């Protein structure tokens, strides 16, 4: 990977402290550390070598092999001049560490080991002192620590990068999941608005039409229609308030009750008050609260569709339970209708049944149109 000028400056700045510190330590060691023969005391040349050699570390991340070559050459040069390599050798070991921590290319690592071997060999030939077994043992230890630690540092860096990628991916997936949940909730609330308010508006329109037609001949019935319109409107506002409480749970007040199958009687009364015949045949059933809400909404939407698409004909609502299935049938006994065009109502009913693990079907039958939903009964705990 190419190194940009900004990256080079960043690397140099990051290594400035360690390089300057090592340079200072080398000078102080040359000035105050006692030197035993055959090594010569540090003079200007020796202090300059100790001070300048660590500065090569400023480029160790950009060109680690070149730094290793320079530092490796400085070791036998220092020994050949008669100085001890006490601190100069540290630069070579740090450069070797960098070679193993910044590349996994086998050829580069072999080259780094070769350069280190040449440096050690040159030191052994140039050193005027007696290089004993302990010295070689120390060299071997430094070599092992530099290579193993460098490889471990690279492995940790790769693992940290992989972990960052995993965390970012997990965060993105979590955000996508939250978006999916939000979209599903919006879809659910849209269905609630369509089913609840759509039914109320259709009943109000129907009752208003009936009242308008009989206003002159039967003003008492027209006034009663207005009362029903007011009642249905208030109920619609209640439904709207319940949905707003779902959207804003921090609003004060108790949450409005969820619709249940017992509310079908009130729905039937509204339809009859609008002048349409509705026969309700309920039977005791066992459903979960969500299943009961879904079945009520399906029945409500089916009745709303009957009112919207036909002006006459009896509407029959049957609810029963057979074994582990609760069945709802809504039949509109009007003249035969053409095949319905898929719309929001049928889509909502089908989706409600599916979410409860049930089945839904709708279509023309002899003498009318039928909606049928079958939901599983509530599981006893």
What structural keywords apply?
Heat Shock Protein 90, single chain, five-stranded mixed sheet, 2 domains, alpha+beta, 381 residues
What does this structure look like?
The protein is α+β, with helices and mostly antiparallel strands. The protein folds into two domains: about 5-130, no CATH class; about 180-375, Heat Shock Protein 90, CATH 3.30.565. Helix content is about 65%, strand content about 10%. The chain has ten helices and five strands. The chain has a five-stranded mixed beta sheet with strand order 1-2-3-5-4, with helices on one face. A hairpin with a 2-residue loop joins strand 4 and strand 5. Helix 1 packs antiparallel against helix 2 (about 45-50). The protein is rod-shaped, with a radius of gyration of 44 Å. The two termini are about 60 Å apart. About 30% of the residues are buried. The model has no long low-confidence stretch (mean pLDDT about 80).
Counted up, domains total 2
> N-to-C terminal Cα separation, in Å?
62 Å
Characterize the biggest β-sheet.
5 strands, mixed
Q: Please tally the helical runs, counting DSSP H or I stretches of 4 or more residues.
A: 10
Write the H/E string, N to C: HHHHHHHHEHEEHEE
**What is the H level of CATH, i.e. the homologous superfamily of the largest domain?**
Histidine kinase-like ATPase, C-terminal domain
Give the arrangement of secondary structure elements.
Layout lengths: L4 H28 L11 H9 L11 H17 L7 H15 L3 H21 L6 H82 L4 H29 L16 H10 L4 E4 L7 H21 L4 E9 L2 E9 L10 H12 L3 E7 L2 E9 L5
Parallel strand pairs: 1-2
Antiparallel strand pairs: 2-3, 3-5, 4-5
Helix pairs in contact: 1-2, 3-4, 3-5, 4-5, 4-6, 6-7, 6-9, 9-10
């Amino acid at each position: 990977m190419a190194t940009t000028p900004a990256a080079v400056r960043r690397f140099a700045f990051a290594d400035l402290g360690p390089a300057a510190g090592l340079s200072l330590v080398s000078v102080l060691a040359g000035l105050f550390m006692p030197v035993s023969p055959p090594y010569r005391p540090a003079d200007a040349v020796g202090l300059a070598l100790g001070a300048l050699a660590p500065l090569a570390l400023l480029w160790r991340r950009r060109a680690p092999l070149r730094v290793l070559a320079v530092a490796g050459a400085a070791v036998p040069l220092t020994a050949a001049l008669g100085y001890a390599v006490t601190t100069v050798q540290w630069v070579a070991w740090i450069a070797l560490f960098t070679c193993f921590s910044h590349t996994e290319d086998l050829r580069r690592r072999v080259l780094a080991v070769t350069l280190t071997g040449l440096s050690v060999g040159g030191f052994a030939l140039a050193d005027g002192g007696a290089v004993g077994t302990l010295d070689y043992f120390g060299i071997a230890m430094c070599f092992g620590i530099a290579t193993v630690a460098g490889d471990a540092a690279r492995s940790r860096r790769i693992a940290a990068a992989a972990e960052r990628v995993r965390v970012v991916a997990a965060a993105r997936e979590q955000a996508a999941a939250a978006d999916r949940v939000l979209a599903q909730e919006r879809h659910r609330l849209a269905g609630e608005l369509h089913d609840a308010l759509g039914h109320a508006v259709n009943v109000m329109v129907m009752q208003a039409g009936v009242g308008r037609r009989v206003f002159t001949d039967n003003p008492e019935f027209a006034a009663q229609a207005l009362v029903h319109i007011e009642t249905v409107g208030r109920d619609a506002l209640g439904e709207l308030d319940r949905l707003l409480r779902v959207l804003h749970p921090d609003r004060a007040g108790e949450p409005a009750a969820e619709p249940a199958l017992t509310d079908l009687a009130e729905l039937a009364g509204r339809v009859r008050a609008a002048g349409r015949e509705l026969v309700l045949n309920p039977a005791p059933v066992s459903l979960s609260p969500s299943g009961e809400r879904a079945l009520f909404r399906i029945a409500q939407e089916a009745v709303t569709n009957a009112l919207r698409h036909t002006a006459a004909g009896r509407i029959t609502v049957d609810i029963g339970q057979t074994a582990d299935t609760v069945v709802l049938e809504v039949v509109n006994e009007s003249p035969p209708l053409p095949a319905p065009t898929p719309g929001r109502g049928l889509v909502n009913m089908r989706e409600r049944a599916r979410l409860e693990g049930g089945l839904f079907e709708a279509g023309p039958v002899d003498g009318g149109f039928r909606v049928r939903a079958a939901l599983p009964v509530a599981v006893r705990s």
